[in-house]
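Hi R.,

Here's the chain you asked about this morning:
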Amino acid sequence: MKKIEQDVMAEPSRDNATREIGPRIKSLRRSAGLSQANLGSALGVTFQQVQKYESGRSRIAADKLHQIAQTMGVDISYFYDTKPEGSAPEKGTPPAVGRAEDSIFKEAFDRIKDPRARYLLSELARVICEIEAGK
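And here is the predicted structure, written out as tokens:
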């Protein structure tokens, strides 16, 4: 076998989905305050395997990605980019960096049943936004 063919075969596949899903797992794991070992334990894999998922060195099987979504309390669609590559973000859309936090915050907020508590929390968020905007 030629040297070039050996190098290509030895290198793991790194398609766009694998490269994009890994960092989203890492961001979500970190925002939840979990270590790679904690997540690995919940998934039945080693922390080294979680490292490979997060870095994109190892593809994630559909059932494992589903298990990650369930463990982290997000919909599996969280891991997939719905916009075509190179498309401009919609006006007012937050950067991708905050997606994990947004999802966790929304799910927690949705579990609050007391209307007064929901109102107070939304008012707190509004005030924080005003402070950050320098109003």
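One quick note: The longest helix spans residues 115-133.

Cheers,
M.
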